[in-house]
Task: structure prediction
Amino acid sequence: MQTPLTPLFVASVTVSYRLVLARLVWWLSTQSSLFIKRTLDVLAVAPALLLLSPLFLCIAAAIRLEDRGPVFYWQPRVGRNGRTFAFPKFRSMRVDSDVVRQQIEHLNQHGASVTFKMKKDPRITRVGQWLRRTSLDELPQLWCVLKGDMTLVGPRPPMVAEVEKYSLADRRRLSVTPGLTCIWQVSGRSDIPFPQQAAMDVDYIRDRSLMLDLRLLLATVPAVLQGRGAY
Result:
């Protein structure tokens, strides 16, 4: 003898079906956006690396001529879901910068914070001052975007030592692929204390969209030209 389906059971099945369908639609939408974002990254960065290669050579020559040290500074950074990757910059500091930092740690303008920032950092070379003011030291990270370790827009990838100081809330910054620029990079950069940086990154993660990425990319140009917080 068949037991008739109760209204409560039918309602439960209907709600479950709708939840599964909504979740599927959300997942497909997210994957579609990520695919478009990745495609745009590659289409923008691949030709940019070729066009910028003469500038790369000029910067490399200037760095070598100043102190004969290495052109690039490689550092492990933390990406999406805590995965580390090799993060390059044009070297803007003395070759012994890591040792000197231990001696000037007490001068951190961000106080007892996760990040270390100092406007007149004695480790920065003369060429490095120009590179940082114009943000040209960041250009090698285009290679990370091409590889997929980074994207054009997203929270900046933190250092391993910084992540070790993160609170559980701060770790939300690691839930997406890191980027070259984001909200706090166009809002004052290093002048903004870490708690506010983290809050802005969480805002981006919550509201991220291709349109927001485009607005942030456009806002990055005047931010770089103004040089506010670039040190």
Summary: The chain has a mean pLDDT of 86.
